[in-house]
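Supplementary notes for students who missed Thursday's class. We covered one full example, reproduced here. Read the sequence, then the structure, then the short commentary at the end.
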Amino acid sequence: MTMKKFLTMLFAAVLVLAVACGKGKEAESKEEGEDDQAPQTASAPASDTAAPAAAAPAAAVSADAATIAGAVKFEGAAPKMATIQMGADPYCQSQHPTPVQDEEVVVGPAGELANVFVYIKNAPAGNYPPPATPVMLDQKGCKYTPHVGGVQVGQKLDIRNDDDTLHNVHALPAVNSQFNEGQPVKGMVATKTLDKPELTPFKVKCDVHGWMKSYLAVMPHPFYAVSGMNGQFTIANLPPGTYTLVAWHEKYGQQEQSITVGPKESKQVSFSFKG
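Structure (token representation):
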């Protein structure tokens, strides 16, 4: 091989090697660039997920929030409630080994009055989104539970049949749309959403079992409660101010009283009903 031919072949080999190395560096540089961008690409969806369109926030609970705690009493001798006759439906009767009393007036041994719906009539201005947890109105033992309750505007209301017999849920609101639905199968749940305030509780009844009844209010805010078997109720997280407090009973109507609560104050109030 001549010297000229050898030099020509050597030059060609070096040229090929140089081109190959250049492409390798270009590919390496491209891969490094892609690695640098990868976290940004991944973080874009994460950012979208972290900040979804959310409902308007609820009015903040003030550090100065007050509490109203109260008691409801019945004056005089408590009326004797009628015994519910369930013989028309053997299933209903079989669920109660002892007679069941009507719940229109439930009075404790010391005059405690249960099932009184208490609420703030002139609630403070603010946005009060409905709770995510539904309110349950249960039909068990051919009775509605609770007997008196409340739900916020827009909050889901689950009405469940826990009995192995037919019930027909007939709601009679004055402002919201009425509904009338049968629930023939145990375990059935009807979900409703009431979108208008209804401060005076309306009646829910069963068209199959005439003794079944419940009362439900629809509130634009969370400042309400129902007196328990001990006659007690509590309304918490209330901003300081002067309010009209209303107590409603299905038989004895309603009463109002003005109350002023200061910062962090816990104030006791009382209502008294008589027949």
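Commentary. The chain has two helices and 16 strands. The two ends are 129 Å apart (CA to CA). If anything here is unclear, bring it to office hours.
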